[in-house]
UniProtKB/TrEMBL annotation:
Residues 60-235 form the Glycosyl transferase family domain. It is found in: Cell membrane. The chain crosses the membrane at residues 16-39. Keywords: Carboxypeptidase, Cell membrane, Cell shape, Cell wall biogenesis/degradation, Glycosyltransferase, Hydrolase, Membrane, Multifunctional enzyme, Peptidoglycan synthesis, Protease, Transferase, Transmembrane, Transmembrane helix. Its main location: membrane. It comes from the Bacteria. It catalyses: Preferential cleavage: (Ac)2-L-Lys-D-Ala-|-D-Ala. Also transpeptidation of peptidyl-alanyl moieties that are N-acyl substituents of D-alanine; [GlcNAc-(1->4)-Mur2Ac(oyl-L-Ala-gamma-D-Glu-L-Lys-D-Ala-D-Ala)](n)-di-trans,octa-cis-undecaprenyl diphosphate + beta-D-GlcNAc-(1->4)-Mur2Ac(oyl-L-Ala-gamma-D-Glu-L-Lys-D-Ala-D-Ala)-di-trans,octa-cis-undecaprenyl diphosphate = [GlcNAc-(1->4)-Mur2Ac(oyl-L-Ala-gamma-D-Glu-L-Lys-D-Ala-D-Ala)](n+1)-di-trans,octa-cis-undecaprenyl diphosphate + di-trans,octa-cis-undecaprenyl diphosphate + H(+). This is Penicillin-binding protein. The keyword Hydrolase applies. It holds the Pfam family Transgly. It comes from Siminovitchia terrae (Bacillus terrae). Residues 327-570 form the Penicillin-binding protein transpeptidase domain. Signal peptide: none annotated.
Amino acid sequence: MEAVTGSKKRWRTFRVFSVLSLLAATVITIVLLSFWLWIKILGPPPLSIPQSTLYYAADGSIIGESNSGEKRYWISLDEVPSHVSEAIIAIEDRTFYNHHGFDLKRIAGAMAANVKAMGKVQGASTITQQYARNLFLTLDKTWSRKLLEAFYTIRLEVNYDKDEILEGYINTISFGHGAYGIEAASQFYYGKSAKELTLAESAMLAGIPKGPGIYSPLISEEKAKSRQRLVLGAMEKTGAISPEEANAASLEQLSFIGKHPHHQAEMAPYFYDTVKKELKDKAGLDNRSIALGGLRVYTALDVEQQEIAEEAVSGTISETSDIQAGFAAMDPETGYVTALVGGRNYHDSSFNRATQAVRQPGSTIKPLLYYAALEHGFTPSTILRSEPTTFRFSDGQPEYTPHNYNNQYANAEVTMAQALALSDNVYAVKTHLFLGQNVLVDTIRKLGISTKMKEVPSLALGTSGVKPIELLNAYSIIANGGKKVEPVFIIRVEDFRGKVIYEAPRIKEQVLEPEIAFVLSHMMTGMFDEKLNGYATVTGESMVNQMSREYAGKSGSTNSDSWMAGFTPKLASIVWTGYDKGKEISLTEDKLYAKNIWIRFMERALEGQDEKEHAFSPPARVIAVPIDPFNGKKATNSCPFFRLTYFVKGTEPAEFCTDHLHKLDKEPILHHKEKKKRWWQRIF
């Protein structure tokens, strides 16, 4: 009886134990499932490790870098040789692809070893645990830190696959000397990308993270070599390499650079500043993302043109002069800003005179005025009288008396083509007032200039300030046949994984009539053509002997500003020189700086390039007519010389020149310099 009772008690105990065990298992399962669901709901932890942002020129060279003192360049797992990951797995976590974040066998072994040694002699952290520590935690050895490490390890394992975790790990571990990640380490130790690492080099690097202060070959080559052999042995045990490969790699002689790639913005610092500003203004990025987001910023900078521009500025302006300069070059077709100089010395002043300074453009505004005139019925042959003139107004405006340079006037009628070439101020103001003062303002806006303009008679002479980069953009629109462009410093931006997060917009809007834009472009070649000399010489005469090809351009000056801007169909550039505080430019030498910088840049930048690619090509509805440059009529055989001038079809003059009828029986008399000129100068 007692046996039966004891059996029943044991059965009841077993049942209770079974029920409790089942309940406990259920609770544990529910807890684990809830924890797993919670982890899933939380989603992947943000991988916000600071990475170096790199800036690239158009040719792919690096022109700048920003970082927090940690050099880190993200590289995908697919891009590195397989022996890189095999070496790291072999020495750090051989069961990486088999566990779920924790290697329980290693943990037990490490605990036993540590108890036996009465101290910590062995660790059991997996690659995932180390990655979690690198991403989210400090190195302090507390229980709270250990629990957080476990928490983040689980989150990583639940939300990322093994290759993603391994890729993150090899891009975040420290290799010493400020190099974080395999790419930065490879660049520092070997001077090459991790894509090119050999087995011996990979094994050497894989051994460093255990103790960068001990196993760096730059600190102790002997210890580094010993550690490398340990890594190779581990790779042999895992079957990643053969004994022969391990032996050959251990015998390979390695050479070390010990230098981070030089990514500081020594070239084009003003350009570099502008790019960083546009990353915020146009790409919408915050300061941290820009500085430490691992971005790849691809810019339009042409390294060769930048060097030429910097040399042109420094080699032209006297070292003893306080004159400042702003320079920019642009591809008229794309708007890509290919070179930029914001001042003579960035360390003395970081103020960017090419993009920030607002200065009076003087006569460089006239091409914009004459585009409006051509659009309203003027032609290159339209004549107005050049003479001292006072303009009086009935609407209360004060009277206005413009003056030509050195008070020189034709005291006769001149064509618009000659007025532009000689920069006749009276002609410009008459044209401006004839059109209506709002017309020039509207045209300026159409050409992308946003600075405020005053509707006054003197606007025709450039008395309202503009930024050099804005005026260059306007000239580029004329150069490309009237298609809208905007200055592009940043072509595109990629995140650290190569995803494009910003791309410069492509604008296809036609804002000018292409035929009129071409006629104006050809008119602007007149400043270099001595056939248009009249009561004064053409404004580009000092540059003619330095020219090897045809350019369109316009110079300008005020008491405190000197300008030169111009283009070929493939390259436009602008120069401003003057004093920052608006002091008057009094020395003749100082007044020539802008022109000399401009022509030296253009000639060197286009040296060796096919002239045909940079030649002006007229649209179909434009015709060329031989014109007497003084009266704007069709030239005849009796005219001493002519200038081939372009007109929109139907607007060319019908009347022939009769000023030289007494010479009909004679051969045309050429200008005394005509025979010395190149073919294009004789035609144009």
